[in-house]
Specification:
By secondary structure, the protein is α/β, with parallel strands linked by helices. It contains 15 helices and 17 strands. The protein has 2 domains: 279 residues, Mur-like, catalytic domain (UDP-N-acetylmuramoyl-L-alanine:D-glutamate ligase); 129 residues, Mur ligase, C-terminal domain (Protein-Tyrosine Phosphatase, Chain A, Alpha-Beta Complex). The longest helix is centred in the first third of the chain and has 16 residues. It starts with 6 loop residues before the first helix and ends with a helix.
Length: 424
């Protein structure tokens, strides 16, 4: 029987259905997918899966843009969202509708019987169902957490891509890079491309990829990039491109993500040809919410979803390379499962004033905890404790001069709350 629930009702139901928000493992979600599957609902297009610690969203944005510029119709699944749940699934560049999501949830609910699914597993199955219904030219999936036991790994995908590996989600993946890398490598497939978009990967990843029998494409060995002042070159075993435009997304680290996306596109070129014009246009025009996203001027306000030490290091390099006049003022709210000191330390040389605050969902560190971490890292640093994010952005704007810059960071939740407060 149809429930007739709205999207918000379905999401609230899913949040309370499973005892934990995250439960790694494929058995439950695979069983439900098999119950949903028929010849009509099988996914027949090429599938690209993107894993790693940071840069997954940017890499997928490049992939999506390249296929759109080439005239293809991709379906893309990412998480989490910033403004609305519908952002998680896009069809030909547009967010899915509430109706498409609720229809998918109805099918999942009927198929799962008494099998309990997490919030993320419901969303993943919805993405797969919608992809099967829409018959896209290509399906691009982001790994939510880890790889080997993540719900997207139930499919036999055509290309796997790992952006980079750093310390994150240790409570689920392990407390060292070698163990984390083995989990990430679990998306590799025998005799199929595995693109590694960083030159400094743990040795366990290479060993695991070789054990699986994947065909590796390593940055710096099989795909090579060279940066010039205002352009860059790319080459792999099949194609080379000279004097490509710098990516529209800020930060030199985006060259790695863009190169990995080009490599993935080239691996599928026999089935989905993409010409150089489409690649160039995609590089110039790719944008992504919450990635050093400028939303206001005088003072400038930027939003960034950086939430772990590696992302903080990348953000610090972006701020440092901007050579902008005025101060950088940070608004920080950080989830409790993050180490405040490890996150703050890479940014201390760039931030003049910190506004530390708390998430309305209760999942974050207290403002006092964040302030203490800043003081421990560098005594005497100006830090102001504000109880709510909307008050923090108001106070920071009042404090900032026209030449100053405000950067909002710490999590997707932090960015989402500021966007709502400023009606972005």
């Amino acid at each position: 029987m149809k429930s007739g629930w709205s999207l918000s009702e379905w999401l609230q139901y899913q949040e309370n259905l499973h005892p934990s928000s995250i439960e790694l493992g494929l058995d439950r979600v695979r069983t439900v997918w098999q119950c949903m599957l028929s010849d009509e609902s099988a996914i027949k297009c090429p599938i690209i899966v993107v894993g790693g610690t940071n840069g997954k969203g940017s890499t997928i944005a490049f992939l999506e843009a390249m296929y759109l510029q080439a005239g293809y119709r991709p379906v893309v699944y990412t998480s989490p969202h910033i403004d609305q749940y519908n952002e998680r699934i896009r069809i030909a560049g547009d967010n899915v509708t509430d109706q498409q999501l609720t229809d998918a949830f109805e099918v999942i609910q009927a198929a799962r019987a008494d099998i309990s699914l997490s919030y993320f597993e419901f969303g993943t199955l919805a993405a797969l169902y919608i992809a099967a219904e829409e018959s896209p030219d290509v399906l691009i999936l982001e790994v939510g957490l880890g790889g080997r036991l993540d719900a997207v790994n139930i499919l036999e995908h055509d290309v796997a891509l790992i952006t980079n590996i750093s310390m994150d989600h240790m409570e689920w993946l392990g407390d060292n890079l070698e163990d984390i890398a083995v989990e990430k490598a679990g998306i590799a497939r025998k005799d199929r491309p595995l693109i590694l978009a960083d030159t400094d990967m743990p040795t366990s990843l290479y060993a695991q990829a070789q054990e699986i029998g994947a065909v590796e494409y390593r940055l710096g060995r099989d795909l090579v990039i060279a940066l010039d002042k205002d352009s860059w070159d790319y080459s792999d075993s099949s194609k080379s491109y000279w004097h490509l435009p710098l990516p529209g997304l800020p930060g030199r680290h985006q060259l790695k993500n863009a190169a990995a996306a080009i490599c993935a596109v080239n691996r599928l070129a026999l089935r989905l040809p993409v010409d150089e014009t489409a690649i160039r246009s995609a590089l110039l025009n790719t944008g992504l919410a919450g990635r050093f996203e400028k939303i206001r001027e005088h003072p400038d306000i930027y939003l960034d979803v950086a939430h772990n030490p590696a992302a903080a290091q990348a953000l610090s390099r972006i701020i440092g390379s901007a050579n902008a006049a005025g101060r950088w003022i940070a608004i920080l709210a950080l989830q409790r499962n993050r180490d405040p000191l490890a996150f703050i330390t890479p940014l201390m040389d760039e931030i003049s004033v910190w506004y530390v605050t708390e998430m309305s969902n209760g999942l974050g560190h207290s403002a006092r905890t964040l302030a203490d971490a800043i003081t421990e890292c560098r005594p005497g640093t100006p830090v102001r404790q504000i109880p709510k994010i909307d008050l923090a952005i108001t106070d920071a704007q009042q404090d900032a001069g026209e030449q100053d810059h405000i950067i909002v960071l710490g999590s997707f939740f932090t960015v989402s709350e500021v966007r709502a407060a400023l009606h972005v």
